[in-house]
Fold each of these.
Amino acid sequence: MCCGNKKSGVGCKEYIFLWWDGVSFFGPDYTKLARLSGTPVRWFDKCKSLEWLFPFVAILAIAGFVIGSELNDVGSLKSQSLNQIHNRDYNMTIEHLPIIFTTEFNKTDILNLYVKQQKA
């Protein structure tokens, strides 16, 4: 499978470079300004910019730390045991139960109370 177009002569290498370097020439990236004076385009032009290099190295270091710390756990066996006790009745103290309640009223009781209120 080729990602390039054979008719136009653009191959995978050019597409990957466009993705790396940035598709647009005109923009806020000042590292591309030297190209106006005829400097050849190189893949490491981005690496000369401290504005791009510092965040990239920081993200790379964080990702490396996370991946490295997770690779230490690969192959280690994590054990867990679940004990289920089946009882006919369960007794819980009131401290373990959240107190949530609702109040229901019968519709006829409310209507009778309303009628009594109106007569009075």
Amino acid sequence: MSNRAQQTSGSRISEMRENRRPDIGSVQSAPSVPAALEKIASATQRVISKRIDLVMLENHEFVSTLIARAALISFGVVVALSAWFAGIAAVVFYLMPNSGVVLHLAVFAAINAAVGAIVVAFGLREQLPTLAAEVTGGESERQPDSQGARQ
């Protein structure tokens, strides 16, 4: 029984020694200013490095998604153009069944040229913003208004 009491009190004594404050005689030195600045610089460098890694990962994901979408759009455009050409050829052959091959190709080319000219004219008619306005955040559009208000 006394042996058991010694065992339990022995473990408690070791726990108390672990939880005790350090001796008052041993004074821990405070970290110096250069050491603290070094730790701050190291932590800042790690944070910046992790942010750069995150930006690189996001950019990689964006570029891979962009490439996949561009490939799908390109494939869709090729298929749509194939369908367009086949449809126009069918219309030409249906409307002019007894004409020669040369006349069929000429009508086919004329229809495609007319549609292309209409699309180009529509594209040129549309007023697109300039690149400078996009880069400066639209400031170039505000300048004429502010000059007009002064006069």
Amino acid sequence: MPLVPLQCRDGTASAFERVSETCCLGDGLDPRIEGTVLDPWLLAYESLKRTYGDIEMPGIKVAPSSEAVTTEVLALAAGANTDATGETQMAPVRQPIDMFVFSSFARRDTPGARFYYVIMNIDRHP
């Protein structure tokens, strides 16, 4: 099952047709503000979930006794985790047979600034 084509930050559309491809969905300066880097994270999450089903995020822990967690709460948790650890990844629980698909919400520190970005990765199996 192919991934739904996504709009990369640079304006190109990615159909993920090459053997290995990375698409930067967006970036920003604050991982907690809606309308910045959270929107690309939500796009990645919703695209993966709609295409492949349940999503796992090893860096995010939800208590088994808690109520259902909304996508927006997961986005905020992913942003906070990325701020603290440098990266939060998510991937479909059931991977496609012919590829490995995942998304990263990452942080990059440069002199005087901290940037956050969301990328989608597709690695096709030969």
